[in-house]
UniProtKB/TrEMBL annotation:
Subcellular location: Bacterial flagellum basal body; Cell inner membrane
Native source species: Zestomonas carbonaria
Topology of this chain in the membrane: Peripheral membrane protein
UniProt similarity note: Belongs to the FliG family.
Function according to Swiss-Prot or TrEMBL: FliG is one of three proteins (FliG, FliN, FliM) that forms the rotor-mounted switch complex (C ring), located at the base of the basal body. This complex interacts with the CheY and CheZ chemotaxis proteins, in addition to contacting components of the motor that determine the direction of flagellar rotation.
Ranges for domain Flagellar motor switch protein FliG N-terminal: 9-109
Gene Ontology MF terms: cytoskeletal motor activity
Protein name: Flagellar motor switch protein FliG
Keyword terms of this UniProt record: Bacterial flagellum, Cell inner membrane, Cell membrane, Cell projection, Chemotaxis, Cilium, Flagellar rotation, Flagellum, Membrane
GO cellular component: bacterial-type flagellum basal body; plasma membrane
Keyword Cell membrane: yes
Domain of life of the organism encoding this protein: Bacteria
InterPro entries assigned to the protein according to its UniProt record, in alphabetical order: Flg_Motor_Flig (IPR000090), Flg_Motor_Flig_C (IPR023087), FliG_a-hlx (IPR011002), FliG_M (IPR032779), FliG_N (IPR028263)
Amino acid sequence: MSENRVATKMNKVDKAAILLLSLGETDAAQVLRHLGPKEVQRVGVAMAQMRNIQREQVEQVMGEFVEIVGDQTSLGVGADSYIRRMLTQALGEDKAGNLIDRILLGGSTSGLDSLKWMEPRAVADVIRYEHPQIQAIVVAYLDPDQASEVLSHFDHKVRLDIVLRVSSLNTVQPAALKELNLILEKQFSGSANSSRATMGGVKRAADIMNFLDSSIEGQLMDSIREMDADLSSQIEDLMFVFDNLADVDDRGIQALLREVSSDVLVLALKGSDDAVKEKIFKNMSKRAAELLRDDLDARGPVRVSEVEAAQKEILTIARRMSESGEIVLGGKGGEEML
C-alpha cells in the first residue's frame, strides 16, 4: 500500500492494520486470537503493505477505535501453520516470533475448524483419499471461496461428485462429524460437536460455484444439467454474479464502493454489463464518475483472467458485507463472468 493510498482513502482493513501495528505485540496478539482465518489474512497482507504511515492517520484510527470499541464482539478461533507463515511475511521473522507464539498459545480447534487455516491445496491433499461423502462434508463446512479453491485441485469427475453431494446435504449426524474429527485428530486437536450440524444444500453449492473459475464453473454446470436439469436450475437461480450488482440498492452500492480500490473497479467494469456501469456511475459524485469513465476509456485491452479476478474480488467483498448485514444483495441469475 502506498503512502498516497493511505492518505487519501483508508478502508476498514487498512484501519485494522494500522491499529494492530500501533498496539504492540502483546495486545495485537490478543486481538488476532479472536479473528477468523480470512480476517487474519486480510489484515496481515495490509500490515505487510503499510509504508510511511503518517501520525495523523494513526490518530484518526485510534480516535475511531475509541468510539466503536463498545460494540466489539469476540469469536473463538484456533490457529495453524498458515497464520505463522502469514504473520512472518507481514512483520518479518524476528518481530513476528513472539507475536505468533502468543497467538498460538492455548489455541485449540476441531479438526474441521483447523482445515480453515490451511492452504486449499493442503486441504485437498488431506481429503483426497477419503470417502466422497467425507469430502463433501469438508467442502460444505469450508467457506465458499476456500471450498472452490479446494475443488480446483481435483479432476472434473471428482468435482462433479462432490458438488452433487454438497447439494443433497442438509444436516449431518453427530456420529459423522465425530468420525471425521477422528480421521483428522492425528494432525489437529479438537472434539466433535454433540449436536446435529446444518451444512450443505443447494444454496451452499451455489455459493461455492460462484467462486470457481468461469471455465470450471461452466463445465460443472453442463455436467450437472445433464444429470439433473432441475438441480442445475436451482443452483443457477441462487448464484450471484457480477452483473447482479445492478440489482443492489443505491445505499448498498455506495457502501460497497467505499471498500473497493479504484484500480480493481476499473478492471472489473471493463467486462461488465452496461447496467452495472450505470449503477456504479449513478452512485458516485459527478467528478468521481467522470474520472472513472476516463480511466475506463484510457485503459487498453486487458486479459479476461484479470477482469475475472477483479470481479471476484469485488464479489467477495460484497458477500462479506452481505453476511455482516451491511448490504443486501439483490437479483439472481446464472450468467457467467466475462
